[in-house]
Amino acid sequence: MDGYGLFFVTTLMLIMVPGPSAMVVAAQAARHSPHDQAHRAFLGVVGIASADGLFFALSATGIASLIVASATLFGIIKWLGVGFLLYLGLSALLSARGAIRLDAQPVSRTALPSSSKLFQQGALIQLANPKALMYFTALLPQFIDPGQPLALQLFWMGATVFVADLIVYSLYGWLGAHLANQRLQGGWVTLINKAAGSLLIYTGIKMALIDRQ
């Protein structure tokens, strides 16, 4: 398998692992009425893909290496991410209308976030995770073939990340909508909420333990 093939498989497996971004997309889809679920949840997916596109661009231009090398810059990114994830996790665990909510009944249109808010939530949850930045920074050079045009390789790899994000996270959105449309009993809804909140808190704690080495 060539460098691009390895990059494609590795990136796809990384995206498919359930994490905070997948939970956010699933929750966004679950909160809307059936005819709105697909296209509104997709706004969050585009936000996630855009954030990964920014990480990829930073890595490709070498800026990410400077960020990872700087204790101050890396610390800012990391602790903002930790705080955001802990906030979302605690909201899901403690609030009846938490930030991460898979509900058996869609909320009213007047209570729904705007399209820009959905996009921003997807982008922020991904930008708050420096592991994506570290992934591209550490591994991207290993997939580059020095015998091939660099710009063309970076273009296809960047496009691959963006499209893979759109496909995989759209599937998570479909899963969230499907669960909501099954009109889950209250006990199951509560369990899903608690699991989502616990996952976000766990991720935040793990993120806090990340160093620059």
Largest sheet: none
Strand content: under 5%
Low-confidence stretches: 106-111
Quaternary structure of the protein: single chain
Count the E strands. Answer: 0
Based on Cα principal axes, name the global outline: globular
From the alpha carbons, calculate the radius of gyration and give it in angstroms.
18 Å
Residue-averaged pLDDT? 75
Distance between the termini: 29 Å
Helix content: over 70%
Counted by DSSP, the helix tally is 9
Structural class: mainly alpha
Query: Number of folding domains?
Result: 1
Helix/strand order, N-terminal first: HHHHHHHHH
Q: Can you describe what's shown?
A:
- There is one protein chain.
- With 213 residues, the protein is mainly alpha-helical.
- The protein has one domain (37-208).
- Helix content is 76%, strand content 0%.
- The protein has 9 helices and no strands.
- The chain has helices spanning 3-16, 20-30, 34-60, 63-69, 71-94, 115-127, 130-139, 150-181, 186-208.
- Helix 2 packs across helix 8 (150-181), helix 3 packs across helix 7 and helix 5 (71-94) runs antiparallel to helix 9.
- It is globular and about 55 Å long.
What's a quick, concise take on this entry?
With 213 residues, the protein is mostly helical. The protein has helices at 3-16, 20-30, 34-60, 63-69, 71-94, 115-127, 130-139, 150-181, 186-208.
